[in-house]
Design goal:
Layout (H helix, E strand, L loop, with lengths): L11 H7 L8 H6 L4 H13 L1 H10 L9 E4 L7 E4 L2 E2 L1 H5 L12 E6 L5 E5 H17 L7 E4 L5 H12 L3 E4 L6 H11 L3 E5 L1 E4 L2 E4 L1 H10 L6 E5 L13 E3 H5 L11 E2 L3 E7 L7 E6 H15 L7 E4 L6 H13 L3 E5 L10 H9 L3 E4 L1 H8 L4 H5 L7 E5 L5 H10 L7 E4 L32 E4 L11 E6 L9 E2 L3 H9 L6 E9 L5 E6 L3 E4 L2 E4 H9 L4 E11 L3 E10 L1 H4 L4 H19 L5 E7 L12 H12 L17
Helix pairs in contact: 3-4, 6-7, 8-9, 11-12, 14-16, 18-20
The structure holds 5'-O-[(S)-ethoxy(hydroxy)phosphoryl]adenosine.
5'-O-[(S)-ethoxy(hydroxy)phosphoryl]adenosine binds next to α12, β20, β24 and β25.
Length: 657
């Protein structure tokens, strides 16, 4: 199995295989924690005895318009129906119910713009903004089941529009604002939205990045036209507005009523879709439902992060990713927590920005990605020492394997050795955290610890047989869970094929992992052709499709290579078209490489980082003519581990010129 694992960062896999350190919870953490070790043991026992009763109890902590007939209807598996027969709306639990509770005047959302301006909204204020927006959308003809594409960075309006769409039963599809016009066009074509919500421009790394022009470009490319584009006014940039179709956010919100009816939804009705990369050349829309997603996210948020009434929760993920959906927006709001969002670059205007935010706002839980930790580590302890980080009580990471060294650095210098650091494993498709320690767990740096209660994980070989302790294998999930993907938008067949066909009846995650003698799981990386760049998934097939549209490219193959900061970046092997082949001398070749790198970025967006281009005469193929990426990978990783030549200032969002 291990030969299928590729190193995910500068020696991360190697260090994960030899790591031995153990960190025990401090007595004060155990005393402060809502879930103590005996509770956790009991929860596991309950879930093992009756998994569905465990989830039913979790569901009962939320409000429903109508109770379910069955907790789980498996009759049309793998199209599982959680809380079948129930009626609800996630927004009722995230907002409406707080208005009649002591949370009414508590801060729901704190937002900080990159230039330093801020906005704070109480639950009551957020509720009113969402209602106004819901009324505006309804007035524009958006109804239950219609799609609304939200192409915005992390702004209050992003949260408001997501909740407003969900409130009226529309399906939101947030497209990360770092994606290109072309990537947006692809998603628009697939989702066929009635409305797009975007912004004139926003701040990132000291620059103003215009977004509205990309929407115009995408709409020109896409074979689908929208009824309206709503534009949030954020900067001084002038953008062109089509008087027939384009509307300003402040105009559509003007004079709308502060009250709006929350649509009563079937628990199984779609809440949102989020495009994610797999092994195909186009991203697929992962669909999540109101009921199951609501239960899974609420339960994991309150349990794993041991929700305290006084918390200020900062998940650094962009709202445009699943982490943002589940643990910036829905999880914290359903729990009545104050959630913090930041618009800009984490190192702007200096490497102390993250710590300054923690100090100024009194952040108590910080949930982030290993890429950011690796970036911040480069600056040593200077900045962590300059700021008062004493409000922190809990740290978390997600999205990619964390090397034990980065884990220990974060734990020691940010958590000061007193904050538990939870490495949480999950995916866009799982919707919720699946494997993670609790704050009271014994922690092993680099391990995601054990599956949560009622989450049934196994590690299997090619034939689907459990592998022995210590051996690597495919990470599968043996039983359905509430926040699970319900299907791929308009593509039930691929949903079945991609996740449920490899090991009959089990969900195949596409990851490689091993389990140690304590039952702790160590995730080593992807088994398939997905590259994890700064924790963001992009398929090699997407890179190849983008490269193939360049006029110089005859054929190409793309693999992931280790990168010290981003974890991985892409490496492209390219055969050029004949007539150009002979013309190229050394420096012109490097110009071609640069052109190809820029081309991919323009096609896919700024997170699609090609770290190296290797121009070849031919690509290795097997007898049936398939390109052998494994050969290219084996040849490359031997020589390039530790290569840092592709470092850029913004691993999440390499700004485009
Ligand atoms: C990877 C992000 C190691 C994994 C929530 C998974 C991780 C993919 C971890 C999903 C972790 C996520 N340790 N790897 N703690 N968490 N991954 O859909 O390869 O953007 O399959 O969801 O990230 O990425 P996605």
């Amino acid at each position: 199995m291990t030969d299928k694992t590729r190193p995910t960062s500068n020696g991360t896999v190697e260090s994960l295989l030899t790591e031995q350190r153990v960190f025990r919870p401090l007595p004060r953490v155990i005393a402060d924690s809502a879930v103590n070790p005996a509770d956790l043991k009991l929860a596991h026992e309950k879930a093992d005895t009756n998994r569905l009763a465990y989830w039913e109890e979790a569901a009962e902590r939320l409000q429903w318009y109508r109770r379910w007939n069955t907790v789980l209807d498996e009759s049309s598996a793998p199209f599982y129906k959680w809380f079948e027969g129930a009626r609800c709306n996630i927004v009722h639990n995230a907002l409406d119910r707080h208005i009649t509770s002591p949370n009414r005047n508590k801060l729901a959302l704190i937002w900080e713009g990159e230039p330093g301006n801020t906005r704070r909204l109480t639950y009551f204020e957020l509720y009113r903004e969402v209602n106004k927006c819901a009324n505006a959308l309804r007035e524009l003809g958006v109804a239950k089941g219609d799609r609304v594409v939200i192409y915005l960075p992390s702004l209050p309006e992003t949260v408001i529009s997501m909740l407003a769409a969900a409130k009226i039963g529309a399906i939101h599809s947030v497209v990360f604002a770092g994606f290109s016009a072309h990537a947006l066009a692809e998603r628009i074509e697939d989702a066929k939205p009635k409305i797009i919500i975007t912004v004139d421009a926003f701040y990132r790394n000291g620059r103003v990045l215009a977004l509205k022009p990309l929407v115009d470009e995408a709409l020109e490319q896409a074979e689908h036209s929208v009824e309206h584009t709503i534009v949030v006014h954020r900067t001084h940039v002038t953008v062109s507005m089509n008087p027939e179709k384009d509307l300003w956010w402040h105009d559509v919100m003007r004079e709308k009523s502060y009250e709006a009816i929350t649509e009563s939804m079937e628990a199984t009705d779609p809440l949102f879709m989020l495009y994610t990369s797999g092994t195909t050349d186009k991203p697929k829309g992962v669909v999540h439902s109101h009921g199951g997603y609501m239960v899974g996210v609420h339960h994991t948020f309150t349990q794993v992060f041991d929700n305290h009434a006084t918390d200020i929760f900062w998940c650094t993920a962009d709202v445009g990713w699943i982490t943002g959906h589940s643990y910036v927006v829905y999880g914290p709001l359903m729990a009545g927590t104050t959630t913090f969002i930041y618009e800009g670059h984490p190192l702007y205007p200096e490497a102390g920005r993250v710590w300054s935010v923690v100090e100024r706002w009194g952040i108590s839980v910080l949930y982030t990605v290993p890429t950011l930790i690796r970036m911040l580590m480069r600056f040593g302890e200077k900045y962590t020492q300059q700021h008062d980080l004493s409000t922190l009580r809990l740290l978390g990471t997600v999205g990619e394997p964390i090397s034990p060294d980065a884990w220990v650095w974060f734990h020691k210098n940010v958590g000061k050795g007193r904050c538990p650091l939870l490495d949480t494993w999950w995916q866009t498709e799982t919707g919720m955290i699946m494997i993670s320690p609790y704050p009271i767990s014994v922690l092993k740096p680099g391990s995601v610890a054990r599956p949560l209660p009622a989450v049934d994980v196994d590690i299997v070989d090619d034939t689907g047989t459990s592998v022995p302790t210590g051996k690597g294998g495919y990470l599968v999930i043996k039983n359905p869970w509430p926040a699970m993907i319900t299907t791929l938008f308009n593509d039930d067949e691929t949903y079945k094929e991609m996740y449920w066909s490899r090991f009959a009846g089990q969900y195949c995650s596409g990851d490689i992992a091993r389990r140690d003698e304590d039952g702790y799981i160590w995730v080593q990386g992807r088994a398939d052709d997905v590259i994890m760049i700064a924790g963001h998934r992009i398929g090699t097939a997407e890179f190849e499709a983008a490269l193939a549209t360049h006029p110089l490219v005859a054929e190409c193959a793309v693999i992931g290579i280790p990168n010290a900061i981003r974890g991985e970046v892409a490496k492209a092997f390219v055969v050029l078209k004949e007539q150009t082949d002979t013309l190229y001398f050394m420096d012109e070749e490097s110009e071609t490489e640069q052109q190809l790198i820029e081309h991919v970025r323009a096609e896919l967006g700024s997170i699609a980082v090609v770290g190296a281009v290797d121009i070849r005469d031919a690509l290795p193929r097997n007898r049936s003519g398939k390109i052998m990426r494994r050969l290219l990978r084996a040849e490359t990783t031997g020589s390039e581990i530790g290569d840092t030549s592709t470092l850029e200032e913004d691993p999440f969002w390499a700004t485009t010129d």
